[in-house]
Amino acid sequence: MTPLGQKLRVMRAERGITMKDMAAAIGVSPAYLSALEHGHRGAPAWYLVQRIITFFNVIWDEAEEIERLAQISHPRIVVDTAGLGAEATELANKFARQISTLSETDVRALLTLLDERAAMASKRPRS
């Protein structure tokens, strides 16, 4: 499941909306919506994300959150390490091979570490 898929499932459940009804309202098949929720489809196009936002009638922060989740919900990622050091390539390859063996705790810890590093990098003065 992708972050967007999880969010859609929760929002549908909270509102008592079936997958079939939502799919019809946003102009996709129930099979496509199911595949999107389960991570068997890539991140949706911008226009579909906008239809989802409109369908749920959300604004501001929640709409931005749906857009953000769509951007990070592609289930098959390519990591380009061209021009980086050998260790970066090694890391990307090891991560790709071992991600399925990580526990939820391990995944959360790695996400937290990356978020902390990104926050530190954004606070550094630019040259």
Explain how this protein is built.
The protein has 127 residues and is mainly α. The chain has 2 domains: 3-71, lambda repressor-like DNA-binding domains (434 Repressor (Amino-terminal Domain)), CATH 1.10.260.40; 86-123, no CATH class. Helix content is 68%, strand content 0%. The chain is built from 7 helices and no strands. It is globular, with a radius of gyration of 18 Å.
Spell out the blueprint of helices and strands.
Layout: H1 3-15, H2 19-26, H3 30-38, H4 46-56, H5 60-71, H6 86-98, H7 104-123
Helix pairs in contact: 2-3, 4-5
Can you summarize this structure?
This protein has 127 residues and is mainly alpha-helical.
User: Quick one: biggest sheet?
Assistant: none
Element order, helices and strands?
HHHHHHH
User: Termini, distance in Å?
Assistant: 40 Å
Number of strands: 0
CATH superfamily of the largest domain: lambda repressor-like DNA-binding domains
What is the alpha-carbon Rg in Å? 18 Å
Report the helical percentage. 55-70%
Name the CATH architecture of the largest domain: Orthogonal Bundle
Mean pLDDT across all residues, rounded?
Answer: 93
What's the quaternary structure here? single chain
